[in-house]
Amino acid sequence: MKAAEVERFARATLREHGLHGWRFRWNTTSKRYAGWCKKTERVVEVSEWVIDLGWPEEALRDIVLHEVAHALAPEVSSHGPAWKAIAARIGADPTAYYDDDLPTPKDTEWTWRQHCPDCGWERYLLRLPRAGSSCPDCGNGAFNPALLLYIDSRDGRPVTARGVRATHTRYDALDRLPPGTEGL
Ligand SMILES: [Zn+2]
Ligand SMILES: [Zn+2]
């Protein structure tokens, strides 16, 4: 499926569901999300990288349907029951996550990976964070030194913690850090 076909499908889907005044647009900046629904602007966006990375037609159509379901739903930011019901009705996958097997920019562009050993939360980074961070999911958004994220270096370079060169590339827990340093 080419970019032009995605555009045609998106415009037709918006029309089909009575979303007059809504527009389709490509997103050229996000590396993290495949699609967007910007309700205040009345815009549905698909990220360009899904085309560059060759997502199959079914997955491309699902991004559009997913975002159109947001456009139709009363709460744009939620994947709650209202969105799920609309998603199911218009033929979008109501699980709200795309298939893990599909390629994403993080497959090629990350340098560091933070991840939580407990719940699997992860984040791909180009730059090593200067300060420690803990799992936002396990800690309900608050910093908690007992829930520090692990850090992997993509190419095996040693992790530098606030200027102190570490001897290992993965920090398992705060108490394994070199004395006098804080966790990443
Ligand atoms: Zn969504
Ligand atoms: Zn976690």
Structure description:
The protein has 184 residues and is α+β, with helices and mostly antiparallel strands. The chain folds into two domains: 3-90, Zincin-like (2-Layer Sandwich), CATH 3.30.2010.10; 110-176, no CATH class. The chain is built from five helices and eight strands. It has a three-stranded mixed β-sheet with strand order 1-3-2. The protein has a three-stranded antiparallel β-sheet with strand order 5-4-6, with no helix packed on it. The chain has a two-stranded antiparallel sheet with strand order 7-8. Helix 1 (3-16) runs parallel beside helix 3 and helix 3 crosses helix 4 (81-90). The longest helix has 16 residues, at 57-72. One zinc ion binds next to helix 3.
- Quote the distance from N terminus to C terminus: 42 Å
Cross-sheet strand order for the largest sheet? 1-3-2
Tell me the domain tally. 2
What binds here, in terms of ligands, is: zinc ion
Give the fraction of residues assigned to helices.
Answer: 25-40%
CATH superfamily of the largest domain: Metalloproteases ("zincins"), catalytic domain
Mean pLDDT: 80
Briefly, what CATH class of the largest domain?
Alpha Beta
Largest sheet: 3 strands, mixed
Shape: globular
Number of helices: 5
> Approximately how much beta-strand content do the residues carry?
15-25%
Please identify, by name, the CATH architecture of the largest domain: 2-Layer Sandwich
Beta strand count: 8
- According to CATH, what is the topology of the largest domain? Zincin-like
**Radius of gyration, whole Å:** 20 Å
Secondary-structure class: alpha+beta
What order do the SSEs take from the amino end to the carboxyl end, as H and E?
Answer: HEEEHHHHEEEEE
Low-confidence stretches: 161-184
